Amino acid sequence: MGGRLEACFNRLRTEGRAGLFPFVTAGDPDLGFTRELLPLMTEAGADGFEIGVPFSDPLADGPTIQRSSMRSLAGGTRLNGVLEMVGEVRADIPDTPLVLMTYYNPIIAMGLAEFVRGAAQVGADAVIVPDLPPEEANAIVEIMHDYPLVPVFMLAPTSTQERIELVNDVGGGFIYYVGQMGVTGARDALDSDLGATLTRINRVKNRPVLVGFGIKTPEQAAEVAGHADGVIVGSALIDVMEAEASREDKMRAACDYIASLREGLDRSKTVS
Amino acid sequence: MSELVSRGRFGRFGGRYVPETLMPALDELEEAYEEARSDPAYHEELAYYLREFVGRPTPLYLAERLSDHLGVLRVYLKREDLCHTGAHKINNTLAQVLLARRLGKTRIIAETGAGQHGVATATAAALFGLDCDVYMGEEDIGRQSLNVFRMRLLGARVIPVTSGSKTLKDATNETLRDWTASVRTTHYIIGSVVGPHPFPEMIRDCQSVIGREAREQILGAEGRLPDACVACVGGGSNSIGLFHPFVDDEDVELIGVEAGGRGLDTEEHGASLTAGRVGVLHGCETFLLYDDDGQIIPAHSVSAGLDYPGVGPEHSHLKDTGRARYVTVEDHDALKAFQQLSVLEGIIPAFESAHAISYLDRLAEETREAGEMKTVVLCLSGRGDKDVHQAEGLLTEMLDDEDVR
Ligand SMILES: Cc1ncc(COP(=O)(O)O)c(C=O)c1O
Q1: What's the pTM?
Q2: With a cut of 0.90, is the ipTM above it?
Q3: Fewer CB near the last or first residue (10 Å), C or N of chain B?
């Protein structure tokens, strides 16, 4: 269960490195692009990916990912197509953890069982549903038990001790710590409470913690990695690609950016 | 470890589908509400403001000329249009502002479609000197510019929403996004019986004052319960407010009227209960309008207040159990009823309420065919002043062509 994720985190631990998990919206601007981009970013230093399924009403997302989702939907991206693309890219990066991130309604529309079966079949390793807290997740978690697919739950700056323990108990793979109040989006400054909350989480955690939401610069990534097992970078990456016009330039900019984060993360780990 | 149970269910609907950041706030709100609910001081304070500020109880008015026109229906209008600010929305916002004060929150946020809920929220916030930001879709800002000005006049900030379809659903997304960042200082006053638990239950309790009064009033006027209760359904708050106190009276038929927009055979309507399927949006599981991929389909209605692709989970339950039935009225017919009530009763209804009025024609036909007479309580959820400008454009032609007298 969760074989690739576990292997990835084991390797990172042995190497004394922090994990780098870029988030991209599948199908922005089209699925062929995403299909090509993921292996390139792996070469540039990414350890695993979060693959976002676009949704019409992404209420946990800020303007960058909203725009990205709208571009993807306008291009005709469908959940079926995203799964197909994951299956194809799996062949190129057989060991890289792939985490699907989708709001709940597209899963409901497909059917819980069909979605879980499909995601496992194409080689996804985990699923994050930002609008599905553990309390509402029984049905899908139960189905996942029969597949090599784990549910990842989130914690936030507002999470109580009780909820930290809850998420630690019921989730799989890793804990996704939402590093700031509010929605996704690159920020100039990190949450000042970040270290303190992560210390609370680290005290009880029995699986790796990745921090997402708001990380932009290599320095920020390095700082966060000082308190966690890795970082998730989404909006800032999408901003970087949005600034370029051609596909080639978007891909090059994305890879350069991932390489700079990789460098920042590795530098900090060797220094400390 | 806390128990892994979904809270706030109406049958299989409802629940709490929100990002983790909000979960602790919903727990806190639920607790505060439970506390307030059992505190006589809260009820006393609320009753005082409902009476002295809102003008409750609102009349239950026998619409004689309308009844004569319909022939077989004796129609009582529950006059929520006479509430301060012109719609039922204030019943909810006032109660929630009192709650926000108990929670120690200093800022209020809200989404609005027609602007009625925004105005009601801005009003209640002004009453207690709280900061107030209202999110409103750009599309609706265009349709309801007077209400935008009203909110500003009341000291609220109106924040235009330009994402998605630029209407109520997108304003709701944006308000939830704000709340995710501001929840420590800010209370979110949702405008209808939607959203994550405890909102649907809490707002239903606030609006049930409509049905409690109406029940007492109709017993006083007729010496018996009505045969049917009729109300329009956007998110479902005025309707659930009317229905709820009658739910156990099995002989009282409950009829919710959804926006048929340009027709159910188009995708341009707001009939989530009649034509939707079960899904999750804005924190609850309920009937929704979405496509085969789970993408939400923007609703359409001539009335901004019914222009919502979801509906309160309690209505989904009432539909599921068959306790209530839901019908639709199209834009064109709602406009006719808007004019008809104005002419027959000297009451200009909100476009939303006009949907409920329009349905009476069909109810009368059914009733006549069955050889019956019916007493009906209809929730006149709001007055039409806000819609007069839009109506001018839409109706002038119709007025020239037709004589509805
Ligand atoms: C006058 C009026 N009636 C009805 C509605 C629909 O809302 P609900 O179904 O929650 O009563 C609105 C919403 O703005 C409204 O302004």
Answers
A1: 0.95
A2: yes
A3: C
Strands B324-330 and B228-232: unpaired
Amino acid (1-letter code) at residue B279: G
Please classify residue B72 by burial: count the beta carbons closer than 10 Å to its beta carbon, then call 0-12 exposed, 13-18 middle and 19+ buried: middle
Ligand 1 atom with minimal separation from the B238 CA: 11
Chain B residues bordering chain A (beta-carbon distance below 8 Å): 1-2, 4-7, 15-25, 163-164, 169-170, 173, 176-177, 180-184, 278-283, 288, 290-296
Is A178 at the interface with chain B, CB within 8 A? yes
List the single residue in A107, A159, A182 with the smallest CB-CB distance to B20: A159
* Residue A81 CB partners (closer than 8 Å, separation 6+): A27, A31
Query: Could you give the CA distance from residue A235 to residue A228 in angstroms, rounded to a whole number?
Result: 20
- When pLDDT is cut at 50, 70 and 90, the band that residue A2 belongs to is very low
- For residue A145 the two structure tokens come to 């038990």
- Could you tell me the pLDDT band of residue B164, with boundaries at 50, 70 and 90? confident
Tracing tokens 């913690």 back to the chain, one arrives at: A209
Q: Cα angle at A244 between A243 and A246, to 5 degrees? A: 155
